[in-house]
Specification:
Blueprint: E1 2-9, E2 15-22, H1 41-55, H2 72-79, H3 84-95, E3 110-116, H4 122-134, H5 137-140, E4 150-158, H6 159-162, H7 167-180, E5 184-189, H8 197-209, H9 228-264, H10 275-278, H11 303-316, H12 320-336, H13 340-360, H14 370-381, H15 386-402, H16 406-417, H17 422-438, H18 444-460, H19 464-478, H20 483-499, H21 503-510, H22 519-533, E6 554-555, E7 560-562, E8 565-569, E9 574-581, E10 588-600, E11 606-611, E12 613-614, E13 616-617, E14 620-622, E15 627-636, E16 640-651, E17 655-660, E18 664-667, H23 672-676, E19 680-682, E20 687-691, E21 697-702, E22 706-708, E23 712-721, E24 729-735, E25 739-741, E26 752-753, E27 759-762, E28 770-778, E29 783-795, E30 799-812, E31 815-823, E32 831-839, E33 845-854, E34 857-859, E35 867-869, E36 874-883, H24 891-901, E37 913-914, E38 916-921, H25 932-950, H26 956-961, E39 969-978, E40 983-992, H27 1000-1011, H28 1021-1034, E41 1046-1049, E42 1054-1056, E43 1062-1072, E44 1078-1085, E45 1092-1094, E46 1098-1103, E47 1107-1117, E48 1121-1123, E49 1128-1136, E50 1142-1151, E51 1156-1159
Parallel strand pairs: 3-4, 4-5, 8-20, 22-30, 42-51
Antiparallel strand pairs: 1-2, 6-9, 7-8, 7-30, 9-15, 10-11, 10-13, 10-14, 10-16, 12-15, 16-17, 16-20, 18-19, 21-23, 23-28, 24-27, 24-29, 25-28, 26-37, 29-30, 31-32, 32-36, 33-35, 33-38, 33-39, 34-36, 39-40, 41-43, 43-47, 44-46, 44-49, 45-47, 48-51, 49-50
């Protein structure tokens, strides 16, 4: 029972208030031990197991280890509430206090002698009770129990037997008081005429919780005639007993024992040698006597027992400092006598007293847990000492929990779990898990690991509800953190509910395990699912890791389309590609696979109404971790828009699966809101239009089986209207872009290249009519080529449709050509182009001529004779290039870049390109250069590949806006004819000659654009960073002209020395390879080989565009010999605008490599 607010006085005369003072009443015979052996822990485990088996049938779920943000406060409040299951276990453990010689805290400290006033001879009854208590076996047969305890006398007035007249009882009370002193009281009970439920429940619950000190007993019904007033009177008596009798007795005992021990031990901390061993004898024997018991005990009047008792009494009055001193002294005596069980128990109480003393002043340091750990280590070394080790750990953890030292609570709980098993160990591990969460910074990983261990222990002892609760909480934590532990928790949960008969619930826990792991684990999980699914209710389940990847499934485009969607007629088959993935490491089978359709809207929005269709898929066997595509055929019997909604199949011939094939379309980024949020369009890859009656075109293509690189191939397409509906408008586009329809030759390549058009209008086609469309294809690469014709047509009544046709053609190489360009070895800047042509085919080829196309460069006129090349032969030609300035510069490229970085929504279209055509030798009448659109298409296809490679950091729409030919580019076309008379043109594109041809204004705008640090109209900081990176890479590209456009030419092969050493005058030619005049400053640097420049070594001047100027200099040659260089030169060149302002500055240092010979 408990009394609130009791004041006690310590040995230092300090007043301390105890908020709740607990006392326990037991029958005297319960203090008899069955011997001097510790009580085995098995009895406690049996009691706990029976209690939980009877009481815990259903329980609330555990708190989540990581709460939601909006639920943290409520979660934290519930977290610090005591666990009901652990509270029940702790109550059973603390009430389970078997009497023993070494655990003096279990000995009685007071006795109540109660006699009913209805007794015929109550005074003699008190006398007999007193004598019995003095001679009781508790004291006679157990000399280690202190007999000098407080005796209180209670007169019980039984209202049910004596009525409400209190005169006899009060008279008896006065008589007892005169005989036995002030520790007497009277209380009357049984005043109710019938059982009161509240009182009956109160005493029954208390009796069930604490039926006995050592084991559970069943007794007679309690409190049958007790009223609420009787219960209050009993509570008042208990309070009076504590405050007026027990507490004063404890205070007096502490004082007297303290004085006695102080005198015997020469001070509280002194040592009286042999004191303990002197008294290590039964009561009433001398030093030469032997113990009457099988094992030595310490009698109650021995000095060490008195020391230990003083520590116990000090604990009762909350004098923890004195208790620590006494327990420490007792521990040393026990340890010296090698009384292991006594020393362990004293060490346990020492640790608790130190913790209790530290709890009074929270600001002080925490005492080390050495005493507690020492006690546990000594307990476990002894036979049947696990119970006391368990009790010590739980007490220590409870004390630390009140002090909010949750890390040490977890440590103590784990240590306690080592001393027990079954459900007690599970309760302790669960308590450690909660302690980790209560820390200031919750250790969720440790908490989850402890919870998994607790669940395993619950499962081992048959507590399915508690095990399932722990596994569920751990699974929720590991779901997004550790796949293997999450799988383990789910598998255990499935096992538990399956054993409880809940088959469908077990299957729901097993399904998430099908995501792929090690092959043995996958085999185990799949076998478990097959076993459970056989007895589960037959219904379709959804797998968390599907075997059909919806994102990679699509309807293969038929030859017709309607409003940019695939289009078929009723009952016409359509082909659907499914991408299958086996995430498991074992072989699986998919049987009864079928696709299901639903109605849809034009934008791809799926509707709920199904569509009648027949779409079976053949059975599939997937090997471990296999990934492959399967193409199936489907027929739809309902017109309108239809969409593949889901698939059904049977996994391993047991598990029936329903899988949705819904997926997201492309992300929308048109508006600001769409860019700020993740908004996606509806997917259309699984959408199809089914029409009852629609216009239909058939495309018949005639192509050769094999072609040769460079050949201009004629391809014929016949378009026939096979429907009964007139087609009013139609157009056709071709792919690749170097295949053009309606191409006709001209006499020569025009001087201006206009952008090619890939779409051409077709004539009107009435029902049954047809038209033939000629196409020309210039073959540029070897390998397999796919030629595609795309026809768009429409009618006034049925809308727009599309039709496609494609052919595969193999191309082989005939001619292999390459060229390289270098600066000519002369004073004036000029370039030489060296061309090499070889026959790589199996037949002889005649090279008839060479053509050069460039916006800026032309070739010096020269003659060329046809060259017959046998297989493996090579032909070489050297051509001089010279500039022909034009108005075509980098302006188009600069405008496109400026519009992009300025944030403009629209970009300028590529302008026509003026070109110069230079021809050497014969040019066939039907060569590539006579088909302007075909040449432009072939050139554009190559240019796009180069631009994508060079400017891969720019957005694709910016790359498409760049012109297909730069001013400095030059293309070479080699015309050839094979022995069968077939003509071909091998096109070589992309030769860059000299410095980029740009105007001064273009250079100024480009410099400002690439050096601008503040982007305009940048909505996000990330966009600004990306554009800054683009500008940085553009400033290092070919567009920025970073290479110094000046070079020095020295016309020197040998020096005739008149004397040695010798000063030789010479002329240096400064060559300008740029299209603008440059102002320069050149400094000559001497060589480390002895060559030195003399006189004026710094030269300044201006060199015109594409020209050179001479410089006079003198060089010092020390001695005759061979020299490799003339040192080096440092140059600073400046480009100025019309107002003399610098636009671009180049600074560089170059070695002057001029090998020459000096001789006398």
């Amino acid at each position: 029972m408990t009394t609130d607010i009791v004041t006690v006085r310590t040995s230092q005369l300090e007043q301390r208030m105890i908020p709740r003072f607990h006392v326990r009443f037991d029958m005297l015979d319960d203090f008899l031990s069955l011997g001097n052996e510790p009580v085995p822990i098995d009895k406690l485990l049996d009691t706990v197991q029976r209690f939980f088996h009877d009481e815990i049938q259903d329980c609330d779920p555990l708190l989540p280890l990581v709460p939601a943000e909006n639920e943290y406060q409520a979660w934290n409040e519930k977290l610090h509430q005591q666990n009901e299951s652990f509270s029940c276990f702790a109550s059973i453990l603390f009430d389970y206090r078997p009497i023993s010689s070494f655990d003096t805290m279990s000995h009685p400290c007071a006795m109540v002698l109660a006699v009913s006033s209805n007794n015929p001879d109550p005074l003699n009854a008190f006398a007999r009770l007193y004598e019995q208590s003095k001679k009781s076996d508790v004291f006679a047969k157990q000399p280690f129990v202190e007999s000098n305890i407080l005796r209180c006398y209670l007169v019980v007035h039984d209202t049910a037997a004596l009525g409400t007249d209190m005169s006899r009882s009060m008279g008896l009370f006065e008589e007892v008081r005169r005989t036995y002193g002030l520790d007497c009281a009277i209380v009357h009970v049984n005043s109710a005429s019938e059982p009161v439920p509240e009182v009956h429940a109160l005493y029954t619950n208390n009796a069930q919780k604490v039926p006995s000190r050592v084991c559970a007993k069943e007794g007679a019904p309690l409190a049958q005639r007790m009223s609420l007033q009787d219960a209050q009177r009993v509570q008042s008596y208990v309070r009076e007993l504590i405050t007026k009798s027990l507490v004063p007795f404890l205070e007096r005992s502490v004082q007297h024992l303290g004085e006695h021990i102080s005198s015997q031990r020469l001070g509280l901390t002194g040592r009286l040698l042999g004191a303990s061993r002197k008294w290590l004898l039964p009561r009433g024997s001398t030093g030469s006597s032997t113990s009457r018991l099988n094992h030595d005990i310490y009698p109650a009047n021995s000095i060490v027992s008195q020391t230990r008792r003083l520590g116990d009494l000090a604990i009762h009055v909350r004098d923890y400092r004195l208790a620590s001193t006494m327990y420490d002294a007792a521990y040393r005596d026990y340890e010296e006598d090698q009384a292991a069980m006594y020393s362990a128990c004293a060490s346990e109480m020492l640790g608790l007293a130190q913790m209790l003393h530290a709890s009074l002043s929270r600001k002080g340091p925490m005492p080390p847990p050495s005493a507690y750990l020492r006690a546990c280590d000594e307990y476990v070394k002894l036979r049947t000492g696990e119970f006391y080790a368990l009790r010590a750990s739980v007490l220590y953890a409870a004390l630390l929990n009140g002090m909010q030292k949750y890390d040490m609570v977890a440590m103590a709980s784990f240590r306690a779990a080592q001393f027990t098993d079954e459900i007690v160990r599970a309760l302790l591990l669960e308590q450690a898990s909660m302690a980790y969460l209560r820390m200031e910074r919750p250790h969720t990983r440790r908490s989850a690991a402890s919870l998994l261990q607790a669940a395993s222990q619950y499962e081992a002892c048959g507590q399915k509800h508690l095990a399932l609760r722990c596994y569920t909480c751990a699974a929720n934590y590991y779901k997004t953190r550790c796949t293997y532990l999450y799988d383990h928790a789910l598998f255990k949960m499935a096992f538990l509910v399956h054993n409880s008969g809940r088959i469908d619930e077990a299957l729901s826990y097993l399904l998430p395990l099908l995501h792929g792991s090690l092959p043995p684990i996958d085999e185990l999980h799949l076998h478990a699912i097959e076993s459970v699914a056989k007895y589960a209710h037959e219904h379709r389940v959804t797998l968390p890791s599907p075997f059909i990847v919806a994102e990679r499934c699509c309807i293969l485009r038929p030859s017709s389309s309607y409003n940019d969607n695939p289009c078929i007629s009723l009952n016409e088959p359509c082909r659907i590609e499914l991408f299958l993935v086996n995430p498991l490491g074992v072989r699986v089978s998919l049987t009864d696979v079928r696709l299901h359709f639903s109605r849809a809207q034009r934008d791809g929005t799926a509707l709920s109404s199904p569509v009648e269709a027949d779409a079976p898929v053949q059975d599939v066997i997937l090997e471990p971790n296999e990934r492959r595509s399967v193409v199936c055929s489907a027929r739809i019997f309902t017109d309108g828009y239809a969409r593949v909604s889901h698939a059904t199949y049977t996994l391993s011939r047991v598990l029936h699966v329903h899988q949705s094939l819904q997926k997201l379309g492309p992300r929308l980024q048109t508006t600001v809101e769409q860019r700020r949020s993740r908004t996606y369009a509806h997917d259309k890859s699984l959408l199809i239009w089914v029409s009852k009656d629609m216009p239909c075109l058939e495309l018949e293509v005639t192509t050769p089986a094999r072609v040769t690189i460079g050949e201009i191939v004629s391809v014929s397409v016949r378009i026939t209207n096979t429907s009964s509906i007139d087609i009013e408008s139609a157009s056709m586009s071709t792919s690749p872009c170097n295949m053009q329809a309606f191409s006709s030759p001209t006499e020569s390549l025009p001087s201006i290249l206009a952008p090619s058009t890939s779409e051409h209008a077709l004539p009107k086609l009435t029902a049954g009519a047809h038209c033939d469309i000629p196409c020309l294809w210039h073959v540029t690469d070897s390998g397999s080529h796919t030629l595609t014709w795309h026809v768009k047509y429409a009618t006034s009544t049925h809308g727009s449709f599309e039709k496609r046709a494609s052919r595969q053609i193999q191309a082989q190489a005939m001619m292999n050509a390459s060229f390289h360009i270098k600066l000519a070895d002369q004073a004036q800047p000029a370039y030489m182009l060296a061309l090499h042509v070889s026959n790589v085919g199996s037949k002889a080829v005649t090279c008839t001529g060479i053509s050069f196309v460039s916006p800026l460069w032309t070739t010096v006129e020269g003659s060329m004779q046809p060259a017959l090349l046998a297989p493996g032969d090579t032909f070489a030609s050297l051509v001089r290039l010279q500039p022909s300035p034009s108005n075509y510069t980098l302006a188009s490229t600069v405008r496109a870049l400026h519009a992009f970085f300025d944030g403009s929504a629209s970009l300028p279209s590529p302008a026509p390109i003026p070109v110069h055509v230079s021809q050497h030798g014969e040019t066939p009448a039907a060569c590539l250069l006579h088909y302007a659109s075909l040449y432009t298409a072939s050139r554009s296809a190559w240019a796009r590949q180069r631009q994508i490679s060079e400017f891969d950091y720019l957005p694709p729409h910016i790359v498409r806006a760049l012109p297909c030919m730069d001013p400095n580019d030059i293309d070479v076309t080699v015309h050839w004819r094979d022995e069968n008379g077939n003509l071909g043109d091998t096109l070589l594109c992309g030769g860059r000659v000299g410095v980029q041809y740009a105007s001064v204004d273009d250079m100024a705008i480009l410099n400002i654009l690439l050096k601008s640090d503040t982007p305009q109209r940048a909505m996000y900081e990330e966009t600004a960073r990306e554009r800054a990176i683009m500008k940085g890479r553009l400033s290092k590209s070919i567009l920025a002209n970073n290479v110094l456009p000046l070079s020095i030419y020295v016309p020197l092969n040998a020096i005739h020395m008149e004397t040695a050493p010798f000063v030789c005058p010479m002329t240096l030619h400064v060559r300008n390879e740029a299209p603008w005049p440059l102002h320069f400053t050149i400094e000559m640097v001497s060589s480390n080989t002895g060559i030195a420049w003399l006189g004026n070594i710094v030269h300044k001047g201006t060199v015109p565009a594409w020209s050179s100027i001479p410089l006079r200099a003198c060089v010092f040659v020390p001695k005759p010999g061979m020299y490799e260089d003339l040192g080096a030169w440092r140059c600073s060149a400046t480009l100025q605008d019309n107002h003399g302002r610098p636009v671009r500055v180049w600074t560089d240092a170059c070695a002057l490599k001029v090998p020459f010979k000096a001789f006398l």
